[in-house]
Amino acid sequence: MTLADASARSGATVRLPRRLAIDLLHRAQIAQPEPIRGFVAARDGRPVAWRASAPDAPEACWARLWSVPDAPAVPTQDELQAPGLNLIISLNTKGVLEIRAWQRGPHSPVELILTLEDQ
């Protein structure tokens, strides 16, 4: 799933490599109290790494990513400025790191099911 072909279907599943999820959560945690912003780059359609700016070829943009140090990982419709996949990391609960996947829906954000996979 890429930014270009992600669909706003409730219940759609997004797969993220466990190692990449751990890296993203770690980056958000050490950046506290500042948020992180960036992109998840993909090669051959599979997410591979965090990038501070939009990835260049041969990588593609798989998702936009940002963290919210003191709020839930729930966006407003206005925060989802363009179609595509958005990952939001919340550090709102002490000792708990949360990452959720969202897309812009017709009237409100649509949450996707985020699953971690071992590789």
3D architecture notes:
This protein has 119 residues and is mostly beta strands. The chain has one domain (13-117): Cytidine Deaminase, domain 2, CATH 3.40.140.10. The longest helix has 14 residues, at 18-31. It has one helix at 18-31; strands spanning 13-17, 37-43, 46-51, 60-68, 86-93, 96-103, 110-117. The chain is built from one helix and seven strands. The protein has a seven-stranded mixed β-sheet with strand order 1-7-6-5-4-2-3, covered by helices on one side.
What features would you highlight for this structure?
119 residues; mainly beta; Cytidine Deaminase, domain 2; 7-stranded mixed beta sheet; 7 strands; disordered N terminus
Classify the oligomer: single chain
What's the alpha carbon Rg, rounded to whole Å?
13 Å
Overall spatial form = globular
Distance between the termini: 17 Å
Q: CATH superfamily membership, which one?
A: Cytidine Deaminase, domain 2
The fraction of residues in strands falls at 35-45%
Largest sheet: spatial strand order: 1-7-6-5-4-2-3
Give the low-pLDDT segments: 1-8
State the CATH class: Alpha Beta
- Count of discrete structural domains: 1
Separate helix tally: 1
- What is the CATH topology classification name? Cytidine Deaminase, domain 2
- Mean pLDDT, all residues: 88
Largest sheet: 7 strands, mixed
* Fraction of residues in H or I helices: 10-25%
CATH architecture: 3-Layer(aba) Sandwich
Summarize the helix and strand pattern as letters: EHEEEEEE
